[in-house]
Amino acid sequence: MIAFRAIGLAGSLTWLAIIRGVGAVIIIYGSRLYGKVDVVPGLFHVETKFGHLWYFPLIPVETYLVISKSGDGFNGIRIPFSFKSVCYAWLRAGTLIAGIIASIVALAEAKNGPEGWLTPAIVGVSALGSFAVFTFHRGSTHASYGRACQLGDLVGLTPQGREIIERIYAPSQAPSDPFTRSDQGF
Hints:
The protein is of the alpha+beta class.
């Protein structure tokens, strides 16, 4: 006998299937924003709404220019589909899961002797390092000047907003190489 009951959990639907004599199976699914890219600090960023299973982004639904987020909600504007956001969502999720699985395998193999744990440990560290780069490196998350202007046009940015973009992306007044001397003589 199987009984199904729906319970709410952090903006997603969770189904709890109780199977007599076996136990319980929890299936978490719903929709969330993933793939945060093209960040323009202080203004907005791009994220894609995905259908997820156990919080793993599976099916991209639509892309948003997110102005603000609070709790489970967000304030944003639907924009054309962002392939970059989808790829980063899948890359982040895939590298995180691969890193966790490889680390568990490395720990399990470490009990069997020193020979079998090194390869999964290297894979785990590489995958988790890739996850960190895809998630936190400025080159992976922030918009270029051209993309920031393009997104600003999509949202109908005011002149004050354009001024903020100009200020954020203004070239530094410092010389590119602090060790360069003006006299170049020896």
